[in-house]
Amino acid sequence: MNGTFRRCLSIALGLFLSALAQIAPGAETTPAAAAATSASGGRVSVAFVGDLMLAETPGREIARGRDPFAPFASLIDSADIRVGNLECVVATIGKPDPKKIYSFRTHPRALKLLQRHFDALALANNHSGDFGPEAFAQMLGLLERHQLGWFGGGSDLASAHAPLIVERNGLRIAFLSYNEYFPRSFEADVDRPGIAWSEDEQVKFDIAAARRQADLVIPFMHWGWENERLANPRQRQLARLMIDAGADAVVGGHPHVTQDIEHYRGKPIIYSLGNFVFDGYDNEANNTGWLFRLQLDRAGVVGWQIFVARIDRRGTPHPAPAEEGLCWQRGDATPRAGALSCSDAM
Ligand SMILES: [Zn+2]
Q: Looking at residue 345, what is its pLDDT?
């Protein structure tokens, strides 16, 4: 069976499964959930952070009992849904990819911290496969045991492309994630665990399928050129394609620096959040990241806030003053200075 045919088969299976999911019991809103929706106005906050590299110095800090998320804990943990990009594999097995300069694996002891501060982790990146498919599969089992959600990766191609749907206050939010930075060898296949790769037609198909199961869809991308402060034409084209296909916001990372922000059809595109927990960089741009907080309702993004993180030598992020951040709320033509200057974004 060639790759294209296997992918077509997998798409057909995905379509069948998503049709089944729509008629699955428990999908309807219960009276209790409806009451919760009206009490809270049906609003949900989601916090996104960029690369979490929990090997190297952060791994040693965790082994000593330190929590690299502690300085940011209140800003992360106050969100209804907390999401990060797990830029390493969590495993005890596997061998580093001999073709790569950097291979990142962290000990399962990191899971307790991830569990404390996160609800869901994006796996579609260029490091989650660093120690091979067996280590990746071990990580999936560990995440499941720790009741951590994940997306953009899975035990096979169909599950890597399936959305993670998280429900809060009666709102169902679908998260998808794709990598488009090489190596492509980490990609899942019909019989191999791995990550989701962003082929345009597949991305459109996945977003449409996710929309049938959820109220809102947010892709979390791993893309762009490292150390470039502006998104490249491919990122801009794909972000537009995803919004045209039904995404409510697009969030991204991988360049190890933050990039520009756009609104397209009123929907935010945050091209790169930069690093979050990462050591080994010696300049300010690489040691600056963003916590991106979205306020959502059934119609989409109500507002957003950016809190700036300054990363120290140990790879630990510290919040900069809120005035250094940005915010935006529905109806604004451009973002405002200061993370706390938009009342609707909070
Ligand atoms: Zn990366």
A: 85
